[in-house]
Amino acid sequence: MNTENHSQTAAFLWSIADLLRGDFKQSQYGRIILPFTLLRRMECVLDPTKEAVIRESYAQEGRPDLVRERLLLRAAGQQFFNASKLTLGTLSDTQTAADLMSYVQSFSKDAREIFEHFHFEDFVQQLSSANLLYQVVQRFAATDLSPERISNFGMGIIFEELIRKFAESSNETAGEHFTPRDIVHLTTSLVITGQDDKLKPNSIVTIYDPTAGTGGFLSEGDEYIQSISQQVTVSLHGQELNPESYAICKADMLIKGQDVTSIKLGNTLSDDQLADSRFDFMLSNPPFGVEWKKVQKQITDEHSEKGFNGRFGPGLPRVSDGSLLFLLHLVSKMRDPREGGSRIGIILNGSPLFTGGAGSGESEIRRYLLQNDLVEAIIALPTDMFYNTGIATYVWVLSNHKAAVRQGKVQLIDGSQHFAKMRKSLGSKRQYLTEEQIDELVRLYGRFEQTPQSKIFPVEAFGYRRITVERPLRLNFQVSPERIEKVLAEKAIQKRDASARQQLIEALQTLDANQLHRNREQFSKLLNKTLNAHNVAVSGAELKAILNALSERDPEADICMVKGQPEADAGLRDNENVPLGESVYDYFEREVKPHVPDAWIDESKRDEQDGEVGVVGFEIPFNRHFYVFQPPRPLAEIDRDLKACTDRIKQMIEGLSA
Q1: Any coiled-coil ranges, and where (predicted)?
Q2: What pTM was estimated for this model as a whole?
Q3: What is the DSSP letter of 93?
Q4: 329 and 267 in contact (C-beta within 8 Å)?
């Protein structure tokens, strides 16, 4: 059956939703059409062995559930069975709902669970109340979804088409659980292209998606490998948080004859249900910029207690965006390079490229990925590619088994201009990638050459050391009435009783109010002498408060010294980012000294990992590398345009008043 017919079958199944108009919201259609399609497909698949399963079911009555289940699966010859005599075609028209639920309850555990996650029973009751159930059941019963007519692969395409229609009809949430096919196709192609050594005949290849949604990446990965290689078994693994998406994903897998035991429900970050597994290929589109506050405790505990034996050793990003946690999670699932290693394709928004300065969690994660040479390429996508957001996005391709020419290097590809406009936008998705554009991006990646759209950098190019540049504190001192007011406002002085305060003020007033002192040591001596002469005893804290109130910054004043060393002025403190691999001292002499001759580097600010002066940071300023300067237009040209515009406005005004 060709793709054309698949689309027709999908359109026919979706047209059954016309019965639902008025009684159901458009966003609910999918919740009815998808489980019924699944039910009918399963029925058709099980048809040849149905009699044998029913006979076996009678024979095994009273046996333990596990034993019975195993024997019935064997009798069915599938990954699932149904032990009921009923079919959609034989449900009674008087007690349709009761019959239908009894029929669904007779499925094996995995299949039954799918219908529960769809809240199938609730919808069956609603259909029954609206007197629509029997009609809907009849329509599905009359549709031939048998494997002879439609292969597993074809059924997968039909099911995906329905999922897409469902996603489009309930636009608001579509993007959360559904990645557009063009993006899925591009990411999958980038990750699996050129991996022939993994795809030898009779090999088993594993694919994993920690944010599986409705299973788009898993299906596409499977499809892609089947299309380029013979006799390769593809084993799919995934985890999904949303029960309904999970049900769709699992249903899609069952329909294709995949083993569904490796599709899990739950939060991947706090409860990894495939903890000990490693995979060949990993594909993921985690939610953009979603906070991880709900699971903060589990993640922080894993980070601090397990360190690099857990998933989050390198660091933790800010709580407002968990996408880098998914990236670390995937890296932890890479196979040992000696066993062929792994490749990852993950879609992220812009913030993981540059959010967070040196020493921050984000920077430390980038540092770990880059210094361990895991980042192979980053491809910038056009805007307006997703159903629920128009922001700029990037595909990261990672590998722990890079080809020799790529070692120590990162390729950045600007695909932001590769797009075609959609005839009709779907939510925020106004643009898409054509097959040719996908091929072109994959070729740009595969060629690994410097072009205006593809730039290649050594890993170190993204690193820098942040040094702290100090400048000396310079203060003048004066005992003017305004500054004496400030002395009284100091907390330490306010603690003295009124007469002690009065005594202090009188002592200060004996000093010359007009004289400006530009050396702290000399002024301190004078101040101490004056206070002693007037029998005013002050503590260290009080003396500090008095000096603070009587001082002002003054670039002409002498440098304030402490133990023979200049004291740093916190207000003038600055940071400089020195490219990694360059001496911080050479940089300082060249870039800083000529402008501020009295500055120095604070050598106590060192990197935790290597102990060198300056904290190491990593960022990937993607756009900077592809920025092309466009000179502004000549002024005469702008003037001419302005004049034409004002003339037009004048004519319009004259036309109105005429």
Answers
A1: none
A2: 0.83
A3: S
A4: no
